[in-house]
Amino acid sequence: MLEPVKIGLFGLGTVGCGVVNVLQRNTNELTRRAGRKIQISHASVRNINKSRLCNTQGIVLTEKPMDLVNNPDIDIVVELIGGTTRAFELVMKAIKQGKHVVTANKALIALHGNEIFAAAQAMGVNVAFEAAVAGGIPIIKAIREGLSGNKINWLAGIINGTSNFILTEMQQKGRSFADVLAEAQKLGYAEADPTFDIQGIDAAHKLTILASIAFGIPLQFNRVYTEGITQIHADDVQYAEKFGYKIKHLGIAKQSNQGVELRVHPALIPERCLIANVNGVMNAILVHGDAVGATLYYGAGAGSNPTASAVVSDLLDVVRTLTVDPENRVPHLAFQPNAISALPILSLAEIETAYYLRLRAIDEPGVLAKVATILSQGGISIEAIYQHEPKTGQKDVDIVLLTHKVKEKQLDKALNALEALPDVVGDVTRIRLETLDA
Predict the structure, then answer these.
(1) Quick one: 36 and 168 in the same domain?
(2) Which residue of 242, 271, 331, 346 sits 20 to 30 Å from the alpha carbon of 167, by its own alpha carbon?
(3) Pair type for strands 260-270 and 100-103
(4) Could you confirm whether 206 is annotated as catalytic?
């Protein structure tokens, strides 16, 4: 039996302790799979005296993370501190010291992955990041290895559990966004500052990574169109159901002859689709390959044990490849580094989808005809329409429409004209519609 592989762990919070617990609980199984023991020998923490959710006996604790970077006995470092500034510094220094890296940090990879992978390639070390996307769902390995015989046409995923929990509660119980968000914070599903989740930033980090692996393009977080769920009203959720759709917050990446679409936003999807029935804090990613067709990956997208599952899986992969020549390892972003292609990223204006539109209009004869005329003049075809009956004494009503596919720039022009009508009250609500057809 070979000597144990020694691990240095940055961070012993919820996920860090989850990693310790999984490694301790599954020591025999992991040793059998790796051919040698995987041992956490050191961990850096903010406060050594703080109580932990794991047994740290036998682990040397320090409040100086650079001690792990500079320790020649540590073979692999695991970064679980989050953020991008300190984490980036530690990871880059560890790579320069010839250490392999495992991280669960999606923001770090999305923003600095190109530089990190280049440094790792130069030093002949691995950087593994399965836990950075969708927690315990092995979606990175599925796309990078399991589907490597395919040309990936598109992928669409529910990749933020907080947003999915909020939309599920709104759909199933008719609750308001603000009400459900408050509950999500009480339950620990949302942070005190939930901006990254509800504004789509967290999902955009993850989509950046998925698209890069799927299409062999550089990581380009700044090119992802990002929209959150804060403008979704309970009425929209109920109207969508009347048409046979559910509203989900999706990350979508598509490849065509014109370029690549990278977008995160709410979308109506047919309730018959499996992904439309992914509820609560669960995650799911639908991936379409030219040979295999559509495949769906479902599971827990966050939490101590699911994320630890992915981290430990990465550790096992890295340990297995310690004696493999760097050029024979699976590439970080699925494609060989010199084959990463700078495909054009389409602007939102050029992207074509169908739409759900909700507008508030004065309840008078001829208003609906004016709306239809404006849409028709803009080359926008109506697929379905619903007008809510006014309540007693009410002067304005909701008009809800579903359109056929049209470019975003055409719709923008038509919405400007609609909102300029004296009969239309306020802004028109727009939600994109995705059929997710194979």
Answers:
(1) no
(2) 346
(3) unpaired
(4) yes
CATH number for the domain that contains residue 147: 3.30.360.10
Residue at 344 is within a domain: no
Parent domain of 268: 139-300
Answer yes or no: do 383 and 417 share one domain.
Answer: yes
**Is residue 19 within 8 Å of 103, Cβ to Cβ?**
no
What number is the average pLDDT over the span 217-246?
A: 96
Contact 316, 176 (CB under 8 A): no
| Identity of the residue numbered 430 | R
From CA 430, how far away is CA 145, in angstroms rounded? 38
CA distance 187 to 427: 33
Candidate list 99, 106, 141, 206, residue with the active-site label: 206
- pLDDT (average), residues 288-299: 96
Tell how strand 352-362 and strand 396-403 pair up: antiparallel
Whether the pLDDT of residue 10 is over 80: the answer is yes
Do residue 147 and residue 279 come from a single domain? yes
Q: How many domains does the chain have?
A: 3
How far is it, in rounded angstroms, from Cα 27 to Cα 21?
A: 10
pTM of the predicted structure, to 2 decimals: 0.95
Residue entry with tokens 């979606």:
139
Helix ranges, 378-435 (H): 408-419
Question: Alpha carbon of 376 to those of 336, 340, 414: distances in Å?
Answer: 48, 42, 9
